[in-house]
Write a structure and sequence with these properties.
- The structure is a homodimer.
- Chain A is α+β, with helices and mostly antiparallel strands.
- The first copy, chain A, has a domain of about 120 residues: Jelly Rolls, CATH 2.60.120.
- Helices cover about 50% and strands about 25% of the residues of chain A.
- Chain A contains nine helices and eight strands.
- In chain A, the strands form two sheets. Chain A has a four-stranded antiparallel β-sheet. A four-stranded antiparallel β-sheet of chain A has the order 2-7-4-5.
- Chain A is globular.
- Chains A and B meet through α3 and α5 of A and α3 and α5 of B.
- Chain B binds a DNA duplex (30 and 30 nucleotides) through α9.
DNA sequence: GATATTTATTAAACCAGTTTAATAAGAATC
DNA sequence: GATTCTTATTAAACTGGTTTAATAAATATC
């Protein structure tokens, strides 16, 4: 779990003993391509760190798949709202590739934060970081054209386009496969 | 500062002595309507709790005002990214009404979190809450039509429409004043 | 209370997306 | 290797916004 340790320490200093205490609760989980970490009506008990693979986080509303996020190596994630509120999920977390995650249960997270102030600080800072990322995403959604958002994704997460089918990327960008195809055509004509 | 105390305790238990330690750093600040808590190129040293009034958080890009958020009574806010990274702001925080905030400096926040594990927990949980709110907003932006988002805002923050001019609400919803006017007309014809 | 300024609506032309449907290309399966 | 299923592109008609400009209504100022 060196990668997890490293990622945690990129946020704040954590002593070896605190780190050891925290890491003992993480369990290795393997998901085959096409299998689900969660589906609607299930409860989300875990917080995850993605070690290897790719997970899409989406809902299906009125028959339409809406991709909210693609999680790849180094991401912390869960289905946060159901996780916090302890209510059934309305979403899917599906492995788009064979995927390895480190999972820690909510009760164990609580134990860790009670035990270690430094790790609670890590919790706050990582939450803060995702807050900033989300906020930038909101502004991007409102200020940029679809074409600009496509180009930005291409620049920031280029490997995604090799790993994920285009219609899911279209969904992530908030448009239809037809719409994305048009944008790509328009760009290639320049 | 009873309202601030109450809001903090709505997140997690905080002992009287920790609370007292934390609150001593908050300063009362008053902003006249039309004045700024921050403008581009300034640094953001404070974290705020809005006691009374209304503050709009916006950028001006290529001559166009883009409202990112309206903060009203009970909101915690700052210009988070410049605050974290200690870089100059690119945004405005403008009092749309005479406004009272409680302000705490970043260095004092650090002192408080170092002193009190419980208050750091509050910090994490409040960050987590805004994370959830932002996430819901992202999904709203992507899944709902402009008309639906207008109706939702009308339902969730009805008083905003009495406090804030319509063209700023249009901007917040990501459309032009003309566009919002059309939506309103369409709705009134039913 | 008349005048100037700001804010909201309406109209017309335009455009970037949508939906539906057909086609083409690629990948998986027998 | 032929067939089936999945994914991506293209076309055509449509739609909900945009921009620009004119007008109307509301608000502030002298």
């Amino acid at each position: 779990m060196e990668d997890l340790k490293k990622t945690i320490r990129s946020f704040t200093h954590v002593s070896d003993s605190d780190m050891e205490f925290g890491l003992q609760f993480y369990k290795n989980e393997v998901y085959k391509k096409g299998s689900f970490l969660i589906q609607p009506d299930q409860y989300m008990y875990n917080f995850y760190f993605l070690k290897q693979g790719c997970v899409s986080y989406y809902t299906i509303e009125e028959g339409t798949t809406r991709v909210m996020e693609f999680f790849t190596e180094g991401y912390f994630f869960t289905d946060l709202y159901p996780y916090i509120e302890e209510i059934p999920s309305e979403s899917y977390l599906e492995a788009l590739e064979d995927t390895i995650v480190y999972a820690i249960s909510k009760t164990d997270v609580q134990k860790v934060f009670d035990y270690s102030h430094a790790l609670e600080r890590f919790g706050r800072l990582s939450m803060q970081k995702t807050f900033v990322i989300n906020f930038q995403r909101i502004n991007q959604l409102r200020n940029l054209s679809n074409q600009e958002r496509y180009l930005q994704l291409l620049e920031k997460r280029p490997t995604l386009f090799q790993r994920v089918p285009q219609y899911l990327i279209a969904s992530y960008l908030g448009l239809t496969p037809v719409g994305l195809s048009k944008i790509r055509k328009r760009l290639s004509q320049k």
